[in-house]
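Progress report, Aim 2. The chain analyzed during this reporting quarter is listed below.
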Amino acid sequence: MHVLDLAVIAAYLVLITWFGARFKEKQASLKDYFLGGRNAPWWAIAFSIVSAETSTLTVIGTPALSFAGNFEFLQLILGYLLGRILISVLFLPQYFRGEMFTAYELMQRRFGPHVRKFTAGTFLILRALAEGVRVFAVSIVVSVVLGTGEIASIVLIVCLTLFYTFEGGMTAVIWTDVVQMFLYVGGALASFFVMLHLVPGGWPQVIALGSAAHKFRLFDFNFSFTPAFFHKTYSFWGGLLGGCFLTTASHGTEQLLVQRLLSARNQRDSRLALFSSWVVVFFQFSLFLLIGVLLYVYYKLNGLPDPRVPERTYPEFIWTHLPTGVAGLIIAAILAAAMSNLSAALNALASTTVMDFFKPLWPRHPEAVYLRLARWATVVWGIVLFTVGLAARHWGSILEAGLSIASVLYGALLGVFLLGVLTKRPGEWSAIIGMSAGFAATFFLRAHVAYTWYVLIGSVATFLVGYATALLLPRTVDRHEDKRIAV
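Predicted structure tokens for the chain:
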């Protein structure tokens, strides 16, 4: 046990919880609790977007990718930029037409209440499963630090995050995200330079051994309509298209990230935050991949065997090789990523539960009743995420498990949003049938293609089947009598 390191970690956990809980006084309405009162500056929202899409999976899973492979994962990040362009053109103008609290209100405006609940329910399932993997990732770090896999340590992280999210709402989420992002990126930079110092020969040695093992290989332009091509996880075309569709779905249709875009003061700030976040994301993924190469070189020079669990490589190195105090700070940074993502998920799940399910059923209650319900919905989802995290221990590689679980459901979700904003003919039944087809296509083809293709397959299937259904169904059957606003 490193007493000083443990003290640093404990101090961080106490201070970040206290900092987040301080925002309780500013939570007087649902707009305050779920959108931060729309007062946060664009740069804070940009950092919050990065923190929301980063987790312990990223921090410990990305170095494991380059340790065992190379830099081809960055091809996916190029697709993230293309996806952001589509979001700014297709979705942001729709989201800032009136005041929305969730992404799925757009689906009621376009199709009707049933599609709103269908898409909102999809998000609740998607985020609970994907976040459960991230909760489990915390246990890897905790087991390295404490030398045990005790669930009680994970409970501590979940409870502390739940406390400040419960009290401070979206304002607490955004500002703690800013603090935590600087902490884990700063921790990664510190570990990078310490590792580099421990490698005999320094950077030239890293370049030489890394190049010899093809660790810096970035692009794979091979293209062919063969099963082997679609089985390959990272290629330029799979990364560009897969990353584009994945980001358009996650940042354009999933409440976890749409909630941040809706929290901006106006559409311009929202767009600025969205594109700025990509620059930070590209930098941090490049940094974590470089750390993986440094770990590879260190292991080879010292004749160490490859670790049994690749995701343990980075936290184990930190805890056993970095100076006392620095190790505690970097482990705290990894926990910061976990808490940041968990708080974002809790608030997004609570907002969707209240705004898309409870409030439409009971629309005449005072604001204070909804605010109280929002806080307790946060607690319930905290319990759900912890439970899913226990099951995630048997789901394989955690980074790719998290991305693949999300991708299975993202496709249908993105497909129905595209059907809504790009067409006028399809109605409610067409949208529901299209989404069902998208789920089925992704589910049955998932064993035959890499996860980077899941979203593309699901969204295309949803869009095509939804539009074809609209041509076959009479309009009187396809459309319910409601107060939809045509898009």
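The CA atoms of residues 287 and 297 lie 15 Å apart. The chain has one domain: 3-399. These observations will guide the mutagenesis work planned for the next reporting period.
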